[in-house]
Amino acid sequence: MNDKTTDLQLTGQSSSVVMISLNEERAIARVVNDIRRVVPDAEIVVVDSSSDRTAEIATELGCVVVKQFPPKGYGMAMDKALTTASRDIVITLDCDDTYPVESIHELIRKMNEGYDLVSGSRLGHRPDAMPFPNYLANMLFGILAGAICGVRSTDVHTGMRAYRKSLIKSFPYKPEGPALPVELQVGPAALGFKCYEFFIDYKPRIGESKLEKWSSTVWTIKRLWRWRFFFNPEKATVKKQLAAQLTGAVK
Ligand SMILES: Nc1nc2c(ncn2[C@@H]2O[C@H](COP(=O)(O)OP(=O)(O)O)[C@@H](O)[C@H]2O)c(=O)[nH]1
Ligand SMILES: [Mg+2]
């Protein structure tokens, strides 16, 4: 790939940046403007379930805004965002200014090296912006991903990732519940998609957190269990179906 092609891709030409939002009117303009500064040519998709002005602001800033109201929860909103994205590389972010937008370039660079999924882990060290109980829980979920699924990841709940659109289309995730990032990390890794993880910074949030800790913990365990590495008929079936799709046996 020549330098010009690489430069063009780093402007976000082949990327959609997708976010979901629940009452993020204080953060949305800053986040969208930061994304535009880093990847001016990227499509920006916002699935909004707010009762405040988040959707109006995102529309004024030229985002593709999909309204999902009343709110259906994290997973259903993220599913809508992932499937609305129209470009080859689909990048997720929170709409709260916590993720380092400049790291989008590293996500794109790694995707251009041929990875199907690139993940920004917040847990290189304990981020000041993450409450200690959340940090411990996230560390534990990473350990459980190894123990239950045989997948190495330090942060299965990060909201900053890049996915190949074809992965989103072919991978049979279940969107219900607040643990979709968990399934979207361990499932593809367990099925043999090419995954890469690097450490990112994590900043203090603008606005109130919408995290439901207990529900999130229960759904995390459920989703890890779905991709458990010891004998698991569901995983074996999905593997066969994917292999058949790839070889053209199933359309
Ligand atoms: N559309 C939509 N967005 C949601 C919903 N729940 C959370 N969000 C958004 O999902 C993102 C992650 O939530 P956040 O409160 O930042 O959780 P945390 O990062 O785990 O603390 C934020 O951009 C929220 O506004 C929902 O039900 N619908
Ligand atoms: Mg957040």
Outline:
The chain has 251 residues and is of the alpha/beta class. The protein has ten helices and seven strands.
List the helices and strands and how they pair.
Elements: H1 3-10, E1 15-21, H2 28-38, E2 43-48, H3 54-60, E3 64-67, H4 74-84, E4 89-94, H5 104-112, E5 117-121, H6 132-149, E6 161-164, H7 165-170, H8 180-191, E7 195-199, H9 213-226, H10 233-246
Parallel strand pairs: 1-2, 1-4, 2-3, 5-7
Antiparallel strand pairs: 4-6, 5-6
Helix pairs in contact: 6-9, 8-9
The chain binds guanosine-5'-diphosphate and magnesium ion.
Structure description:
- This protein is α/β, with parallel strands linked by helices and 251 residues long.
- It has a single domain, classed as Spore Coat Polysaccharide Biosynthesis Protein SpsA, Chain A, CATH 3.90.550.
- Helix content is 44%, strand content 15%.
- The protein is built from 10 helices and 7 strands.
- The chain has a 7-stranded mixed sheet, with helices on both faces.
- Strand 2, helix 3 and strand 3 form a beta-alpha-beta unit.
- Helix 8 packs parallel to helix 9.
- The longest helix is centred in the middle third of the chain and has 18 residues.
- It is globular and about 50 Å long.
- The mean pLDDT is 95.
- The protein binds guanosine-5'-diphosphate and magnesium ion.
- Guanosine-5'-diphosphate binds next to strand 1, strand 2 and helix 4.
- The site of magnesium ion has 5 residues, from loops.
